[in-house]
Amino acid sequence: MLRYIDSNKMGRSQLGWLDSYFHFSFAEYCNPNNVQFGVLRVLNDDRVQPGTGFETHPHRDMEIVSYVVEGELSHADSMRNEETLTRGQVQYMSAGTGVYHSELNHGEKLLRFLQIWILPDKKGHKPNYGSQRFALEARRNQWLFIASGSSEKAPIRVHADVNLYAALLDKDQKLDFKAGPNRQAYMVMIEGSGSVNGVRLSMRDAVEIVGEDVTVAPSESAHLIVIEMAKAS
Fold it and tell me: Is the pTM higher than 0.70?
């Protein structure tokens, strides 16, 4: 089963310094019929103006993955981690029992990144932070395995039954994704356009995939991310 998610109908926040698309209920966007998809609780497409960002604030009991689309994302946290990531690079933070952090744009250009929150398998994990500086070519016309809660092949390990992948497809380069009968996935067209099993996606659109294998067919260069997980009961 496929369900198309139109970015034009998503929750929005336009604060001047921040322009966000909310795939699920978040902040001022509250829709009781759109709270989460399986263990995927938040997926925000954030555009942050230079010299601004998310100042120091707390989190707990959440697995947070940030995927940089363009610009520079500068991270700092109460575990004394500090670094700046750029296009195609990924950071992971397990908030666990509690952590403070900031995500700022110290660059001169617009920052765009995907903020992904995943419900952990239990509360009370020890807070943790890490990052991966993936080369863009590592996802060229193939799925780059980013994170997993079970596979040792994933560079990033999370405390949840999920698998994250990204791909950067050239025009007319089709790519299969096998969700399987007891799994589901949330796929986002980050950049470009194309179709998923005939369902047309433009930039920022998404599709819910439940118990079905799919084929992505780009109509131009296409940049995608997918979060795969156990099928919700």
Answer: yes
